[in-house]
Amino acid sequence: MTTRPAIPTLLRKHRNVILTVGMLLLWASCTRVVRQDEWDKQRGPVIPHDTFPADCSLCHVGNDWNTLKEDFVFDHEKQTGVALKGAHAKAQCLRCHNDRGPVAKFAAKGCVGCHVDKHGGKLGINCNTCHDEQSWRPTNAIAEHNRTRFPLIGTHAATQCIKCHTGADSGNFSGLDISCVGCHMSDYQSAKNPDHVAGGFDTDCKRCHTPISWQGASIDHPSSFPLSAGHAGLNCNQCHTGNTFQGLSTDCVACHLSDYQSTTNPNHAASGFSTNCTQCHSTSAWLGAKFNHPSSFPLSAGHAGLKCADCHVGGKFQGLSTDCVACHLTDFQATKDPNHVASGFATNCTQCHTTNSWQGAKFDHPASFPLTAGHAGVKCTDCHVGGKYDGLSNSCASCHTSDYQKTKNPSHAAAGFGTDCAQCHTTSAWLGAKFTHTNSFPLTGGHSGQSCNACHTGNNFKGQSSECVSCHLADFQSTQKPNHTASGFGTDCKQCHETNQWKGAQFTHTNNFPLTGSHAGLNCTQCHVGGNFKGLSTDCVSCHLADYQSTKDPNHAAAGFATDCKKCHNTNAWQGAAFTHTNTFPLAAGHAGLKCTDCHVGGKYQGLSSDCVSCHLTDFQGTKDPNHVASGFATDCRQCHTTTTWQGAKFEHPAAFPLAAGHAGLKCSDCHVGGNFKGLSSDCVTCHLTHYQATKNPNHAAAGFATDCKQCHTTTTWTGAKFNHPASFPLSAGHGGLNCTQCHVGGKYQGLSSDCVTCHLTKYQATKDPNHAAAGFPTDCKQCHTTTTWLGAKFDHPASFPLSAGHGGLNCTDCHVGGKFQGLSTDCVTCHLTDYQGTTNPNHAASGFSTTCTTCHTNMNTWKGAVFNHTFPITSGAHKVFKCSDCHLNPANQQTFSCTHCHDHSQTTMNNKHREVRNYVWSSPACLNCHPNGRH
What we know:
Largest sheet: 2 strands, antiparallel
Distance between the termini: 173 Å
Number of helices: 36
Oligomer: single chain
């Protein structure tokens, strides 16, 4: 018996199964099979179509599962209410509608429902802040960045975020140094034209460079030395040789000393010209200098065309007098019309002469006697007889006494007129004088055309009365309509009459009873019966009592109305009186149209209450929305109602709790539950305690925040609160962009110190230029630093030693050697002892000069050019042209001086003259002791 192999038997036995498997493998090799949880690059994941229509031909073509119909259209916005825009409109349906679950579930999460947040949640959930639906590429990144402390401009705007923010993919954008040198230190160190490091240039790159490009930097030269004209076109190294940019002098002579020394027209050095070249030269060129003569002697007219040598003979430019007579003494002495010398004229030529010419001088007569009209055309000799110019009187009578005495119309002498002719006469002519009558009696109207003698009879000009009755008594006594005398009228005629004529007088009734309305047209006798003008009453009722008593609508007498008629009536007519209701109850709106009897029932006008409730109690009690009585509302209806209507009342919530924003739209019952209007608290937490307790970012309760919600929140909404940091620690610059948790670590908001060093101690300790800790600098960082950045601190030197002029451009280490900042002396000599000892013109040390340098050296730019205030006057008088060596004969010792070598007085002669002078000594110090001002 033979046995078949086991394998063929197995194959034969499972032939059907094998064939089935083979068919499946063949089909798989020809057909694209996608598992339900796999991703199809074209269509997305394959999902069950349980909820899709049974008619596959609505979407698919024939039996091809992978091909959609070309005309397949689905209006997503119309069918679902959600519009697909941008890249969402182009996405395959199955990208969103797949087997993950309902789309609404993921859409509710926002962008992160479908898109993986590469930032790990560090930038929030609002992806549309940076991204839009067109592409994943960020938008508005530059605009958003410009809200930070470092706006992007120039090449910074084109730089990828990750170039600076290396953690951008993970959402880390904070903590970068915004100073230029933070990124461009290598550029700074490698720059050689000029060498930034060797030149000690500031690392604040933006002073010269722009964000457009590192090359092509422009520097604004210090305002103390602007580059203009000839300086503007120079290269830096033409002045800053050897890469030296610190400590260069801004004095012109520092570069132009050779020009100064070689100039001989005029010779600058020999003439002792100042080395401050800017006084005459500009930066355009050395030649063509313009010198502004001192304002004490401006060159004008004839002086302007002269050469320097015309006055400065022999190259002498120092000590020349500015007095005209110094050059023009011969002109002064030679002038004979008038003779200047004989007349004793002052040698101050400018009083009459100008710089145009000596001839044609104009003299301004003293203001006490100006030459006008007839005086103006007179020659000097007409008054100044015999060449006399001093001591002449300026009174008119000194020349015009004869005119005064012979004048008879009127006779000046007989009338006792004053000899001050200018009171009536002018300088034009003696005749035609005009006299201004005294202010106490001006000549107006009929008085103005009278001759003087019409009143001043018998040439009497003294002691006459100015009262009208002194001349017009006859007029007063003869007047009968009305009879002035019988009526006892005052004799002060001008109360009714004026100076034009006696008749037609107009009387202004007394102010306490002006004649208006019907009173204005009455004759005097209608009131002043029987010529009685005294003691009449001004009360209306004195004439109108009958009108008062006969009036019945309303009955004045019964109602007890006051008899002061003018309260309601005017002077035009008794009828049509207008009554102004009392200020305590003005008639407005609904009250204005009522009749008096509507309120004043039964003719009662006295004792009525002005309280609203006295008339409107039924309205008050009948109001139920809200219930005024139950709510205990005040019966002062005016608080809410107006006089227009009871309905539509407006209630002004108390100022302690104004209804604004979210509170404004509420009904009264929303807060005043159960009609409770009394005793409610105005504290926010009364209603919003649940909001306070539920808030976790930050945790209000744990942080111990105050329950006074309005410190941060408004009445608009609870979210979006804004907190104003305490004024003792305002969040500015670098502090402004921080999150609360960056400083308030672990939710701690109480008891944090506001001292800078609390957070910045490490920076304080790590700073070496200068070494803050070693130098003993205070830890009050804000003395020098700002909240913008730790670098670039500015220190204000103490007011006791301000850094000005030459001190201003120094580095700290120039004075604070070895990092020593404490205990340094502010005395100049501390640093400038070598200057003091090395100065020989004059020799400071030998002369015993004070080491208080500021006594003479006021210009902090340079040691040279000191100005010494001499105790002996050398700025005026004969000594002002002297040099130090003229008196201080020993240049090595300025303490010694000589007077007698110039003032060549005989000692014998001086001894005789000073015999009466106590302690007299023949020596220069003794001369100075007695003559401290150089005078006798």
